[in-house]
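User: Sequence in, structure out. Go.
Assistant: Echoing your sequence, followed by the structure tokens.
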Amino acid sequence: MSDWLVLVLAMLAACAVVVVITLVRHKRAPDDEDPNETPDVIEYMTMWIGVVYAIVLGLAIAGVWEARSAAQDHVQAEAQALHEISERVRVYPPDVRDRIRDDVNAYVGHVVHTEWKSMTQHERVTDRGTELLAQVRHDVTDYQPRNDFEAQAYQPLLDQMAAADQARNARADSTGATMPQVVWFGLLTGAVITICMVFALQIRRTPRELILAGLFSATIAFMLFLIWDFDAPYSRGIAATAQPFLNLFPGIKG
């Protein structure tokens, strides 16, 4: 089942719950009940709860979107650092240069074809990817420059190697969900409370109010879906991609 189908079903379910409860409540309400006599304090509390919950939802969406953007930045930084290594070794002897480039390509190919699936399905990087990057590090650090020109390129290569390793570690740390369980508990509880406050206003007077109440609940379901979808930066619908690797290493086919 696709994520967007889940979204549609969740929004329809939220609307259906509100409509069904409202209709049942309307049928069971006493004949002498006057919906216009809702106390002002309930209207004030409903407005206050809705505003607070909207702020919480906004902060949650901003947080998971920032985490998703940071995850994509990690991928870009890692790909760029590896690309710089592959380009800067051109000053080395052909056998050393080709060995480093081959090991870089092997690592990139593993990330694109194998490790990305592991991140998507299991939310973790692979041990093989760690080994391949370690091999690139050994190739770069173990070579002894033979002249001043090679020596000038050696330190920048070490810096790029450190940047690639740091970006990989950051990518590994951001493969899982970013929202703590207690935050999800608060978001779901707040959604239930906010929707229940709609019934406190005795929304049963006109079809227009019923439609608005349904759309209100569907909007909350949509916002919660967005938070859930962004929560795992590499695993769900709107996720970070391996495109930076494919752009900088066109020889690695996706």
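User: And one key feature?
Assistant: The helical segments are 3-28, 40-88, 94-122, 127-142, 148-173, 181-200, 207-231, 243-248.
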